[in-house]
Amino acid sequence: MSWRTKVCASIVPSVVLMAGPALAADDATVLKDLTAVIALQGQSCGQVVTATKQGENDYAVACSDGSRYRVFVNPDGRVVVQKQ
User: Fold this and answer.
1) Closest C-alpha to 32, from 20, 14, 58
2) Which residues pair with 23 in a beta bridge?
3) Taking the domains of the chain in order of start, what are their residue ranges?
4) Own/partner pairs for 36-39, CB < 8 Å, 24+ apart?
5) Other C-beta atoms within 10 Å of 33: how many?
6) Model's pTM, two decimal places?
7) CA-CA distance, 74 to 84, in Å (whole number)?
8) In this predicted model, what pLDDT tens digit does every residue of 25-82 receive, in sequence order?
9) How far apart are CA 84 and CA 24, in angstroms?
């Protein structure tokens, strides 16, 4: 497993734990962590400006450069950044 995958696999669950169910998905910490996850996956984004929680470990994000992604953990436990 590459170091990028290991880092991403630890960041996304941390994002979910830090966000908590009562906090909005647009919390600055969550946006910053999602920006890091997208960058570590080699995708262009600039900075995440909005994030909508779609489920556990599943976010729809919009970036400052206009890109949109779905960031989620697949059943194998890997972080996936899918361009929308």
Assistant:
1) 14
2) none
3) 3-83
4) 36/11, 37/8, 37/11, 37/12, 37/71, 37/79, 37/81, 38/63, 38/69, 38/71, 38/81
5) 22
6) 0.69
7) 16
8) 458 899 999 999 999 999 999 999 999 999 999 999 999 999 999 999 999 999 999 9
9) 22
